[in-house]
Amino acid sequence: MGKPTCANEFLRPFVDESKKLEEDGVVYSEQHYRVKIWGFTCDSPARSFITGTRGHTAQNACPKCKTNGVYYKNPGKVRGIETFPDIDAPLRTNEDFIDRTCPDLHAIETVVLEELDIDMVLDFPLDYKHLCCLGVMRKLLLHRFNRETVMLRITHDDVTELSRRLVHFQGSISSEFARRPRCLNDLPLWNATEFRLFFCILEIRSVLKGVLPSVLYDHFMLPHTAIKLLSSAETCFRFNSSSKDLIPLLTIQCYLVPTRMDHYFMGISLVLFASFAVFSSTNGIYLFATQIVMLSLTMKQMSEPL
Predict the structure, then answer these.
(1) Phi, psi (degrees; rounded to nearest 5) at 111
(2) Pairing with 184, which of 58, 148, 175, 205 sits 20 to 30 Å away (CA)?
(3) Full-model pTM
């Protein structure tokens, strides 16, 4: 079965059943429960597909604010990318989405999900995996440890020491994580779990402090601190504004630190940190992914799982 051509037709049975559950609730063990859809966890293409909006490469693609993208092409490159350098754009609301106040955002006229009791902006959180782990942190690490792009030289001895510290943590990572930290020589091969380990789980201070120049170390601590606060259920609401205040510092230092950092990192970091999405649900997402990995190990073969 391939991808359906029409999201409305594909989602119609789900919407009809959800509307019935919202109206009637569920009775279990002689107890009546109300049903409320909390949100939809999607990556960017899936979110655009089911909400009937433009893809993430469009000029008005940001689902959280009304920024206009800027097309940027690095010198010598054939193709460019759409970037979003605006940090003060007004935020989108559910009323804006329903009233179609920004026609360029919408790819179709009617979205069947609007029939449900949901917020078409707030109930579609951003994709933490691709924005934070494979986006900001991957781009930041690749730039900082690429000797051809960074003018603040990081010596081979520094890279060796950082790799030694990362490998040292291998014995301290619990079995719930499908990956263990690897040395920086394997950085291009890291997946999202490894970037998340470096980003949030491992204390960056214990790995980077005393090795990197202070200006680079401070710059690493900005996204680490912001995401650390936002990824905790206890602090994501209390310190939401504090995390947002780190946005200007993060982006300004991209220009202050002598490096040829391109506009891709600037745009993706702004879209991420300027958003009012709450990332406390990401731990559950990674727990689910880990359970899938553990389940696959018990299968005899993919064609005959039982």
Answers:
(1) -120, 125
(2) 175
(3) 0.73
